[in-house]
Amino acid sequence: MSTINPGVLYVVATPIGHQGDLSPRAKEVLEQVDLVLAEDTRHTGRLLKHLGIQCHLRSLHEHNERAITAGLIEQLQKGAAIALVSDAGTPLISDPGFFLVRECHGYGLSVSPVPGACAAIAALSVSGLPTDHFTFEGFLPAKSAARLAALEVLSAQKSTLVFYESSHRILSCLADMCQIFGESRHATLCRELTKRYETVRSDTLSDLCEWVSRDADQQRGEFVIVVAGNKTSEQADHQELDKLLRVLMVDVSLKTAAGMASRYFGIAKNEAYQRALSLKNQTD
Ligand code: SAM
Fold it and tell me: Which of 44, 62, 87, 94 gets mutated to test ligand 1 (max ligand atoms within 8 A of its CB)?
């Protein structure tokens, strides 16, 4: 039975290390499509050979994506089923494919995901850091001055931060994070996930930096750095809320003060009310 439909672009995730992480459906889609678009045809060719799949492969990378998209749209309009893969993980996540997918939407063509591995999500899931809100930042700038400036912009952010990093820059990147986020900020370093030398280590940025600098083996491979959000700014916001509530409660009722503070800080009325109540109880 056919898993695929004509005229659809399938965005197919491939493993980030362990070959067993390719889903059975991904395999079926790759077997059945008319064309597989791959970032590096040699790399994907090896994966397909390992799976025993013979198919028509064409390269799509950041340098030719714009030039070849019009032709691919035409093929899809004529009913071809096409799969897009990247070297590892989920296409478009710090990988090519955005232009093609956006054009497909523009031409009213169907785009269908075949989900699977993604290094950022795999790292987040084992990081031990809050996952209710997170910001995926991908790769930081390669040059230290630009990297420091980018980190500065992120330093007050409360949500967990997720970065990709290569072995060449892992040490300098951790050192810059220590400088901007502070040595005591918590982070989880995820190296070579799902591979033989997988390492997941959670510690303060300064201890991680020291640990990586002491062991050359820990500087090899592929990395995701998951960094805790800025708790200090959350505490600072609470202090600001308390300050405003104390001033307001001198002249207006607790309920009115809570309403005004909730509008000012853009927080839930009940949150401001509960805070006002506990401040009142402290002074009574
Ligand atoms: N599209 C991919 C995904 O879904 O994860 C990411 C592609 S990006 C070009 C490659 C980067 O992802 C690497 O430099 C590294 O930061 C991260 N990465 C990929 N595989 C990894 C792995 N097995 N362990 C840790 N990080 C990995």
Answer: 94
Which residue has the least CA distance to atom 16 on ligand 1?
A: 164
Instruction: Could you please state the CATH topology (level 3) that the domain comprising 8-117 is classified under.
Output: Cobalt-precorrin-4 Transmethylase; domain 1 (3.40.1010)
Q: Is 136 helix (H, G, I), strand (E, B) or coil?
A: strand
Displacement of CA 22 from its chain's centroid (Å): 20
**How far apart, in whole angstroms, are the C-alpha atoms of residue 33 and residue 119?**
26
Confidence band for 30, pLDDT divided at 50, 70 and 90: very high
CATH number of 120-227: 3.30.950.10
Residues with CB under 6 A from ligand 1: 16-17, 86, 88-90, 93-95, 118-120, 164-166, 190, 192-195, 222-224
> How far is the C-alpha of 218 from the C-alpha of 18, rounded, in Å?
19
pLDDT digits (tens, 9 = 90+) for 195-228: 999 999 999 999 999 999 999 999 999 999 999 9
